[in-house]
């Protein structure tokens, strides 16, 4: 990873007619350049290669239909190890013909299959209808043998003399309508029959045991077989219309049992034949899809590349002779040789008589920003670019973020056990990354974790380091080197006795007694503090001071990085009028606070700790110019503090009006001197007979023309506008130094919160499980440990880890990058086939 974006240039490509397709194809394989649109005023429908793009879209449509059919058949599409090259233009029509033939064949087979399935469904429904309605007829016959059941309708009673009903004497015929209806529609269907037919119908229905599929919707639902008996043709017509309204599947009802048996036999034969034909059709369809799946991936990639090539060709313009295409591209200067090689290879493949070539042209536009990354650094670069893409040739925070981001996270998350679990999880993702990339999981949460696997690994490793510093492992301390505190010395020197232990619940170790404190712990915090009652007070003071120290160093480093931006843009005035006042203001106030913290740590030992003054009181008195009655921290403290405050206050007006006054002098007072400098340059150039003037290294001349060297002054200089802009920057920086320093106290707060949550979880869960000494406790220890592991992962690792991640992100974006990083650039997006999105991958078809 580079510390600033790569140098870019604007180049003009002259693509000879006949080889332009192959040249663009070579550039797409390498991903070297970003094309500019030379036809911004021409609509997309009026460009030269619209017909070719439409042809590619038609092939994409066919491929989408093909992949959906393959996906329905549960056939995997094998992917090739190497991406196929874009086919030459003469093969495009061949691929188009193959796809069209395949589409026609598949659509015909699919139509036949759907027709067979529909016929099979109709025959199956007819079979169920015949079987169930037979039970309806037999049950009615039994009811009629018992006597008349419809006394409320006298016209339906049988005459004792003639043996006919009243309806039969009127000439009405008994009719039947039978079929199937969906289960959810039965109640409304029955209600409608009763209201419309005035009760002159008899409805019998029963549910089909087998679930039947609806070919129109593809849903599997329960169906009901019904049989409607009615008198008269008019009632029959009404029943028919009601059945059509409710989308019933109607089938003819047999006259007698013999006819019913014959129909059932013929249906069984036809169903068996249809099943055989349907199986053969499905086998043939699967063979066609299996063969098509072998070439589907290559076709998708080739069509995608062809469409991209023609889209790029639409961005080019033709010369006056219409024999050459002209393209403008942004290209890294280091890749110009590869660009020429790609054009030569494309000309060779296209059998062009005149080779294509590249010409570098001057440009006043701001180039895009290119920062090359690998799989390790890409995650950290994404964190930076989420704030904003860096300006062209601006210092990149990403190389420093690789260290500072996981470190600040670990300061808030410091725990040896939690860091080890996080590191092992990230290490597993790193070791299995090839297999994970092939699976292409559609879970967005998992994809987020996997893309940030190296960030998680670094955060876990740094958390292990800070966990050792805090001597904290699942809220317990590790006594690796042996504690520096000794209780035995308190008894040896007659400070404690057995009566002292019995009379006092809490005892204090006195480090002033010989042998009690043998020296600091070799690495991290002494494990004895884990047993102390005042442990929280000690850690409060320690972590709060540590947060301030880390914050001031981090912000100072950000201010120092701004120097490299000023030097690269040849604006040395910004070093004296921006950088130095900012650095002096920050260090004279908060840098001095860090100095007092370290001085108090080093100057006051265990014996003098009771006389140690408060740093906070001294820092407040530094601003109000008081505190003569308070014991000084060191000799000459008052004079040094007054000097530092004066320097910090004097840096504010320099930061406020320094640069606006200097720019005003350059625009107003320095005109004549700039004219003389320009005349001398022209004269030297003429004498040397050179086409371009060499850069002048004279310090005095650079002092006058440093602003002009990077960006010319405007024709009209608005002093009020510049002063207002600089005033906003000054207020933001001065107040930001205070608020940003306080913002770093989140390191202290989240670190204490994480430690306390870990301690509470241990006390509430694991300690209860370990306190049971019976055999039942051994059995209960397994679910207790499982609960402890689940809560540790869900609360301390996931929730607390996400919280620490977001806070570390804010510290980098606001407190660190704000000091030197503008982030208003445009990202370099090369024309690269590997970066082109695929519609089929987004839909899950590939």
From TrEMBL:
Lineage of the species this protein comes from: Eukaryota, Metazoa, Chordata, Craniata, Vertebrata
Pfam families registered for this protein in UniProt: V_ATPase_I
Its job: Essential component of the vacuolar proton pump (V-ATPase), a multimeric enzyme that catalyzes the translocation of protons across the membranes. Required for assembly and activity of the V-ATPase.
Family: Belongs to the V-ATPase 116 kDa subunit family.
Keywords on record: Coiled coil, Hydrogen ion transport, Ion transport, Membrane, Transmembrane, Transmembrane helix, Transport
BP terms from Gene Ontology: vacuolar acidification
Annotated TM spans: 407-431, 452-470, 546-564, 576-599, 642-667, 776-799
Protein localization: Membrane
Record membrane topology: Multi-pass membrane protein
Predominant location category: membrane
Stretches assigned to coiled coil: 92-126
GO molecular function terms attached to this record: ATPase binding; proton-transporting ATPase activity, rotational mechanism
Keyword Cell membrane applies: no
An example Gene Ontology CC term for this record: plasma membrane
Name of protein: V-type proton ATPase subunit a
InterPro entries found in the cross-reference section: V-ATPase_116kDa_su, V-type_ATPase_116kDa_su_euka
């Amino acid at each position: 990873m580079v510390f600033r974006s790569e140098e870019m240039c604007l180049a003009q490509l002259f693509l000879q007619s006949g080889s332009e397709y192959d040249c663009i194809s070579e550039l797409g394989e390498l991903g070297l350049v970003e094309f500019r649109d030379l036809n911004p005023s021409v609509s997309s429908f009026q460009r030269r290669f619209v017909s070719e793009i439409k042809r590619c879209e038609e092939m994409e449509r066919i491929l989408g239909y093909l992949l959906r059919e393959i996906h329905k058949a549960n056939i995997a599409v094998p992917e090739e190890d190497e991406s196929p090259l874009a086919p030459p233009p003469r093969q495009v029509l061949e691929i188009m013909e193959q796809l069209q033939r395949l589409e026609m064949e598949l659509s015909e087979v699919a139509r036949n299959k759907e027709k067979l399935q529909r016929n099979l469904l109709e025959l199956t429904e007819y079979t169920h209808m015949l079987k169930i309605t037979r039970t309806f007829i037999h049950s009615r016959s039994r009811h009629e043998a018992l006597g008349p059941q419809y006394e409320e309708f006298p016209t339906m009673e049988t005459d004792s003399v003639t043996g006919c009903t009243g309806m039969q004497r009127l000439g009405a015929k008994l009719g039947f309508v039978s079929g199937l209806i969906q289960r959810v529609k039965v109640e409304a269907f029955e209600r409608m029959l009763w209201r419309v037919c005035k009760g002159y119908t008899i409805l019998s229905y029963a549910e089909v045991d087998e679930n039947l599929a609806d070919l129109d919707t593809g849903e599997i639902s329960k169906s009901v077989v019904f049989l409607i008996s009615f008198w008269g043709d008019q009632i029959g017509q009404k029943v028919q219309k009601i059945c059509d309204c409710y989308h019933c599947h109607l089938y003819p009802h047999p006259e007698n049992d013999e006819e019913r048996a014959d129909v059932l036999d013929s249906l069984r034969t036809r169903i068996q034949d249809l099943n055989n034909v349907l199986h053969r059709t499905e086998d043939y369809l699967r063979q066609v899809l299996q063969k098509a799946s072998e070439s589907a991936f290559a076709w998708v990639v080739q069509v995608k590349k062809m469409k991209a090539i023609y889209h790029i060709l639409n961005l080019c313009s033709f010369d006056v002779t219409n024999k050459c295409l002209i393209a403008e591209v942004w290209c890294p200067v280091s890749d110009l040789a590869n660009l020429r090689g790609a054009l030569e290879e494309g000309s060779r493949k296209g059998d062009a008589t005149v080779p294509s070539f590249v010409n570098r042209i001057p440009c006043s536009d701001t180039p895009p920003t290119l920062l090359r990354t690998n799989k390790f650094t890409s995650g950290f670069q994404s964190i930076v670019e989420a704030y904003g893409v860096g300006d062209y040739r601006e210092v990149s925070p990403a190389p420093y973020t690789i260290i500072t981001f996981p470190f600040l996270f670990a300061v808030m998350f410091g725990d040896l056990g939690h860091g080890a679990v996080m590191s092992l999880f990230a290490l597993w993702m790193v070791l299995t990354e090839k297999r994970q990339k092939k699976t292409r999981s559609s879970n967005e949460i998992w994809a987020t974790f996997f893309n940030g696997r190296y960030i998680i690994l670094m955060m876990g490793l740094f958390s292990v380091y800070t966990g050792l510093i805090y001597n904290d492992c699942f809220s317990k301390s590790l006594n690796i080197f042996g504690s520096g505190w000794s209780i035995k010395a308190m008894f040896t020197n007659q400070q404690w006795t057995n009566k002292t232990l019995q009379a006092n619940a809490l005892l204090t170790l006195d480090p002033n007694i010989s042998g009690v404190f043998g020296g600091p712990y070799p690495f991290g915090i002494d494990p004895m503090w884990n047993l102390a009652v005042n442990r929280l007070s000690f850690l409060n003071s320690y972590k709060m001071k540590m947060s301030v120290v880390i914050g001031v160093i981090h912000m100072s480093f950000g201010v120092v990085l701004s120097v490299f931006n000023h030097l690269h843009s040849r604006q040395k005035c910004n070093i004296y009028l921006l950088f130095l006042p900012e650095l002096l203001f920050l260090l004279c106030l908060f840098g001095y606070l860090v100095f007092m913290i370290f001085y108090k740590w080093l100057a006051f030992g265990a014996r003098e700790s009771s006389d140690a003054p408060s740093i906070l009181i001294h820092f407040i008195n530094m601003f109000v110019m008081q505190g003569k009655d308070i014991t000084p921290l060191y000799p000459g403290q008052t004079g040094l503090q007054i000097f530092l405050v004066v320097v910090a206050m004097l840096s504010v007006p320099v930061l406020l009006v320094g640069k606006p006054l200097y720019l005003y002098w350059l625009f107003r007072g320095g005109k004549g001197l700039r004219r003389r400098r320009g005349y001398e340059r022209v004269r030297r150039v003429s004498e040397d007979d050179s086409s371009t003037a060499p850069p002048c290294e004279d310090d005095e001349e650079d002092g006058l023309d440093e602003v002009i060297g990077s960006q010319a002054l405007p024709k009209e200089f608005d002093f009020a506008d510049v002063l207002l802009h600089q005033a906003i920057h000054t207020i933001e920086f001065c107040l930001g130094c205070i608020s940003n320093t306080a913002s770093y106290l989140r390191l202290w707060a989240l670190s204490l919160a994480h430690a306390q949550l870990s301690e509470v979880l241990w006390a509430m869960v694991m300690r209860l499980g370990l306190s049971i000494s019976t055999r039942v406790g051994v059995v209960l220890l397994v679910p207790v440990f499982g609960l402890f592991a689940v809560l540790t992962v869900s609360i301390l690792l996931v929730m607390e880890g996400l919280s620490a991640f977001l806070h570390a992100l804010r510290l980098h974006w606001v407190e660190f990058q704000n000091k030197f990083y503008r982030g208003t650039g445009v990202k370099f997006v090369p024309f690269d086939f590997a970066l082109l999105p695929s519609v089929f991958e987004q839909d899950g078809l590939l």
